[in-house]
Design a protein that fits this description.
Blueprint (H helix, E strand, L loop, with lengths): L2 E5 L4 H12 L3 E5 L8 H10 L5 E2 L6 H10 L3 E6 L6 H6 L1 H21 L4 E7 L23 H19 L4 E7 L1 E3 L18 H10 L5 E4 L11 E2 L1 E3 H16 L7 E6 L5 E2 H12 L5 E4 L14 H6 L8 H14 L1
Parallel strand pairs: 1-2, 1-4, 2-3, 4-5, 5-6, 6-11, 7-10, 8-13
Antiparallel strand pairs: 9-12
């Protein structure tokens, strides 16, 4: 049983990845300072898997605290690094907070990996690194455009940090996973997206509005150069996304990677507009959603969706759940909550 450190393990993607790792034979520990999550999800993880996961509620931007975890767990086979601040709008308002947290935590993790000889890192990147791409769908070699937010810039900079260190440290292996838009929940409805702060991702905003947590939701802009004027995104079911992390770890542990730094897009491979997502939810749930059209939101990219062929070939990964499954599982989770 290989032991894996999952940072941000009580977060949305982190908690679902704990489940997938355990179900594929890994031993896991979590580090999460609970700034935007709670440990409640670990109860759901235990109910699904039968395994109790320990969480260390520390700030990874603190090197001394981070080192103590690596000292306590000298047998780590790898790290999956989710922990980061991720609200686009907040990053525009508080860029220093985002640079301090997202970059220092990554640097501290890699420093400890180097010191304690932990060979494998899966880095949680984002499709936001592409900016407003001139070509769609984006491939892993699509050039970056200007970052649309400080959050996106921390992901661009994080990737560059990993790239530079991989060139200098051949005994460290990196996989950079560029997520598109994770959504949905575990099919059991025992875990799902439940941030401590007000959700800003589209799908929990939709389900929260439908169940009455919000009186109304806002579509930010209907005047973009898209087929219906609203933003277009590539929505990937969170359990499909979680499984890609397991496959990326297996790639590195089994030494099947082409180089010590690999990059993969993780998306369904098709774009869905905000208005189309609302229509999909209304169709699945039978609920009519109360929404209004508002002004554009700072930091939002117009349209982005993935070419996922490289992940299919290099990881043996393909998404198995569509937008209907995303909405069905997200709605079941919202109702159970």
């Amino acid at each position: 049983m290989k032991k894996i450190l999952v940072t941000g393990g009580t977060g949305y993607i982190g908690s679902h990845t704990l489940v997938d790792l355990i179900q594929n034979g890994f031993d896991v520990i979590s580090v999460d300072n609970l700034s935007n999550s709670t440990e409640d999800c670990l109860v759901g993880v235990e109910q699904i898997t039968g395994k109790k996961v320990k969480n260390y509620p520390i700030d990874l931007a603190n090197l001394d605290a981070t080192r103590k975890i690596f000292q306590e767990h000298s047998d780590l086979a790898g790290v999956i690094h989710f922990a980061a601040l991720k609200l686009v709008g907040e990053s525009v308002e508080k860029p220093l907070k985002y640079f301090h947290n997202n970059l220092n935590s990554l640097l501290n993790i890699i420093s400890c990996m180097q010191e304690f000889k932990v060979p494998n890192l899966i880095f949680s990147s984002s499709c936001s690194v592409y900016g407003n791409s001139k070509t769609l769908p984006v491939t892993e070699s699509t050039p970056f455009q200007e970052a649309e937010s400080p959050y996106a810039r921390t992901k661009q900079m994080g990737e560059q940090i990993c790239t530079d260190i991989a060139q200098a440290e051949k005994d460290l292996n990196f996989v950079l996973l560029r997520y598109f838009n994770p959504a949905g929940a575990h099919e059991s409805a025992l875990i799902g997206e439940s941030p401590s702060n007000q959700p800003s991702n589209l799908v929990p905003v939709i389900t929260g509005t439908a169940i009455g947590k919000r009186a109304q939701m806002t579509v930010f802009g209907d005047d973009y150069d898209t087929r219906d004027g609203s933003n277009i995104r590539d929505y990937i079911h969170v359990m499909d996304l979680a499984n890609a992390h397991t496959k990326a770890l297996q790639l590195l542990i089994e030494n099947r990677q082409a180089s010590n730094l690999e990059i993969f897009n993780l998306g369904i491979g098709d774009g869905v507009s905000v208005l189309e997502a609302i229509a999909a939810f209304e169709s699945i749930s039978g609920q009519k959603l109360n929404y209004k059209i508002g002004p554009r939101r700072p930091g939002d990219v117009i349209a982005i969706y993935a070419n996922n062929q490289k992940a299919a070939e290099g990881l043996g990964w393909k998404p198995t759940r569509d937008m209907d499954k995303i909405m069905e599982s997200a709605w079941a989770w919202e109702q159970k909550r």
